[in-house]
Amino acid sequence: MEYKALIEVEKLALKKQDIYQKSTLIYIARAMLASMFIGFGVIVAFKTGNFFYLEHSPFAYPLAALTFGTAIILIAYGGGDLFTGDTFYYTFAALRKKMSWGVVIRLWIYCYIGNILGAIVFALFIHFTQLFNDPNVNGFLLSVADNKVHVPTMPLFFRGILCNWLVCLAFFIPMTLKGDGPKLFTMMLFVFCFFISGYEHSIANMCTFAISLVLEHPVSTSIRGVVHNLIPVTLGNLVGGGFMMGWMYYYANKPYVEKDVSIEDKEVISLKEEDNLS
């Protein structure tokens, strides 16, 4: 059932590699675009949740989780390159020997740099709008950002694993669905699951921290605190996308794609065998 989606994963990875080979700057620009889309999701989520946060309502986090889905829709339909999703795509392509590990690592690094730059640029945009300067507006975001820098390293790592596992599934599962409605619903549902569960997404955290740092933030929300969060979360995201998705799907489908037979060819062979039996 997942063969068609895996075909798309491989094609997508190779397409991203082609963009990088043609222009590193364009690849970085696409990565910046993706994190800025995440930034839009962060703003919508925390501004919506803030109305309930001010009233000490338990609905603050669920509403934020629901509206954060804006980000994944923007990325899925607006384009861009996100480090977290690329951990899955490139790992699978590399295991299939369609990409070299050297290229994969370079792509991850450039994508991560682009995501950081995009988060910083978006935070500056928010700063100049002055829409988040009022404590009655930014309280929820600053509170969440400050809580993130106080979580111990090991929990951050495992939250990062679970987060990117779900996020990659949010992009992977809709690949075989027909129609925009089911795709949008599935993506929103999976993003809601990771957000409401309290898992950690490195790029979403980048944007949250970047916006917090350009506002009147708590002293504890410092660059040191940001680094303390992002290193284990990023490594966790890498394991979640690379191992739990990339390696696991490769291993689970290895009997069908070994002997260097492409997934596409294998699917055609399977369809022919079904025709012969019928």
Can you put this structure into words, describing what you see?
By secondary structure, this protein is mainly alpha-helical. It has a single domain (3-271), classed as Glycerol uptake facilitator protein. It is 81% helix and 0% strand. It has 12 helices and no strands. It has helices spanning 3-22, 24-53, 60-67, 69-78, 83-95, 101-129, 135-148, 153-172, 180-197, 202-213, 223-257, 263-277. Helix 2 runs antiparallel to helix 3, helix 2 (24-53) crosses helix 7 (135-148) and helix 8 crosses helix 11 (223-257). The longest helix is centred in the last third of the chain and has 35 residues, at 223-257. The two termini are 20 Å apart.
Compact description:
Helices cover 81% and strands 0% of the residues. It has helices at 3-22, 24-53, 60-67, 69-78, 83-95, 101-129, 135-148, 153-172, 180-197, 202-213, 223-257, 263-277. The longest helix has 35 residues, at 223-257.
